[in-house]
Design a protein that fits this description.
Order of helices and strands: HHEEEEHEEEEEEEEEEE
Structural class: mainly beta
Shape: globular
Strand content: 35-45%
Number of strands: 15
Helix content: 10-25%
Distance between the termini: 61 Å
Largest sheet: 6 strands, antiparallel
Radius of gyration: 20 Å
Length: 263
Amino acid sequence: MEDSLVTTADSMYNALIPDTRFTYSERFARQLVKTLKIPNSYYYPFAKLKDMINLIYSDDNSFRIFNWVIVPSEVMKRYYGAIQMPGEKLKLYGLRDYTEEMGKGAEDSVLTGGKWFGAIYYRIMTNEVEGHKVYTLFGVNTSSPVSSKKVLDVLTFDANGITMGAPIFGVASEQVPNARINRFILEYKKGSEVSMNWDDTRKLIIFDKLVSQFNDPARKYTYVASGQYDAFKWDNDMWNYLRDVIPVTLMKDGQQPPSEDSK
């Protein structure tokens, strides 16, 4: 069954007629659900399939996410995902890409019913708020033709299912008065290199501070890395915003960097 999944995954990425890639993706999703219904499938590693799609586990191993993106044209991308819980019987939450519908409210939205800010995830971290686990998901979304986004989203579980987004970031909302954002998004110029990841030595989420190339803060697609870094630190049940966490010495033209002896 894994071999069949790999074959379908190849078609959903590389079909010569781009519009059929959605059809192959839907077929892949059905095949995946059928495969995961095998008892104790959570403990099967899918070593071959991991070369085709993204498969990531939470750092406490309480769930894993199957995650992929379809590119039917140069101006369209659609993200797919499913969250599997451990256990003999299948418990699976499907994710539906809701990125376009969110628009300017992406940082403020709290999503339920499988709606999701589409992304490919590269890290999942566990924290607790008032005794309940919250998961911070590190992802990247490149669906816009002019910009890319790094995102910190929040996943929680309850009796009703999953919720995406929570006000655990120490950043004020630009759209909602007296409220904090529910997910943190770095939007930047397409093709630029922007980092956002956990630094285990400093115990911080460190990310590039961005500036507009044309001094126009309203146009996020002009943002690039400034060479300076901000961060989030977990304290008092939230991610607290820290500015300029790594000192950077700005040199004037022709100025020599200080020697080790002068530091």
